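Quick one: co-fold with zinc ion.
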Amino acid sequence: MLAQSLLCTSTDSTGLCCGQCQSCLLVQAGTHPDLFRLEKEEGSKVVKVDDLREFNRKIFLTPQLERGNVGIIDPVDDLNRSSANALLKSLEEPPHGSHILLVGERWMSLSATLRSRCLTVRFPLPPDSAVVRQWLANAPADTAILKRMRERYQPDTTKQQDWLLALTAVCLGKEDPILLAERWQKLGEELPDLLDWMYGCVVYLLKLKTQSLEAQKTEPNSVSEKSHATLTNRLSTSSLLNLAKLTIETRRLLDSQAKPQMLLENMLASWYQGSQSVSAHKTHRIGAVT
Ligand SMILES: [Zn+2]
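Sure, here it is.
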């Protein structure tokens, strides 16, 4: 919708596309000559530097219609260091009248130099996952980010539920973080998915923290809801913010070939320590009252 609005030749007073002009029709048909998208290849973990160079070449071509070129990189989270450097060159001297849209979920994982050259637009998700699922069911096209959202918002898959239960067990001191790290590092290719899920989980717990006390009082029903309630009780907001930062950092280090076992141990130890500090504080408070 943003790309279409940038290319539309008769936007309304708010800058939104008309949906009827030649440009809009071409965008809807997926054949607009000045709009192109860079996604990582199927089966590849990162966006390749050669693909990024091709993207740079296209963005500098003379546009065929009147509104400039629009290039989309989705997701920008999957750029490795050399691709990010190649992108930086285009962002440093952008072609006049053209736009580069970087779509991502882990904005802070990009380098500060790259971020400083962009205008950031945040699209927060509604806290009610049913609303997100309904929106996804009618979403227009299957882009990379929508595919990931569909995976994340499908009703609990067994795999994700297993991850959640294991994480809750670590926080309750019922599962050894080192042994779990050993088990999880065998996930291999699925490790980025695990960390993306973990990041989503931290964000979700932060959202639960900000809900009104009234909303928190409703009894959790499903196994997942119970785990989420346990984790929200045991982890303070500052612990959760630290875990969010650590997850982004771990995801970045994972791409740079660091040892997964060590990264996971560090990560899980932080979940455990975070959950212990809150319960220690609570015990102390109760002790003081009695
Ligand atoms: Zn239009």
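If it helps, The two ends are 59 Å apart (CA to CA).
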